[in-house]
Amino acid sequence: MGADIDGVIELRSAGGHWEMQVDLLDLQSGRDGEAWGVSFRLRRDGGFAASPLCRSRAPGDASDAVWEAAVGDYQHSHTYATWAEVAAVDWDAPLDGKPSWYWVGLWRPGEDGEFAQDGIVWASATPGLGEAAADAFGGDLDSPSQWPQGGEVQLEGAVHRPVILTAGLLAPADRSPWLGAWQAMRRLAAEYGDENVRPVVWFGRRP
Q1: What does the angle CA 13 – CA 24 – CA 32 come to, to the nearest 5 degrees?
Q2: What gap in Å lies between CA 81 and CA 124, rounded to an integer?
Q3: What per-residue confidence (pLDDT) applies to 187?
């Protein structure tokens, strides 16, 4: 059994009614379990806490398009947030007080040769990382959070370091699959106001 995201971007008209502007499925956001967890509290994999946007709430004043699509046997976890709420989130705030057990930060050299963070990767799914960490630090290490303070592993031209997760790392606004949705909402909010634009999101379980 799995789940798929569904939803719309709504715009509040001058008369105060919410109307659908963009179908999120048209933006091809795809499946992104970690981003769903931190953004919408669909699940809590990876040991990270939920973001302030995650509280479950169904908008009673939603557009007809939402009610036609969001109510059924498999739809669940409805939520929404105005663009003002999204813009107020500190995406760089730590979600925990210690390095992630599962994730490791990835740094790659840029054009100037300086290393810059290039997101995060699932440590256990990175070939050779466990062996390289054991060689560098000794012992049988199950997680990057067990590496010594300041420890890093070089592997295939990249540097891997323990990382404290943030919402921005798990749901980066400047990368697919979220880029299209953020761009659409930012564009609408610039024209109509932050309080008048919102994503309404729900999930549908596959039987």
Answers
A1: 140
A2: 34
A3: 95
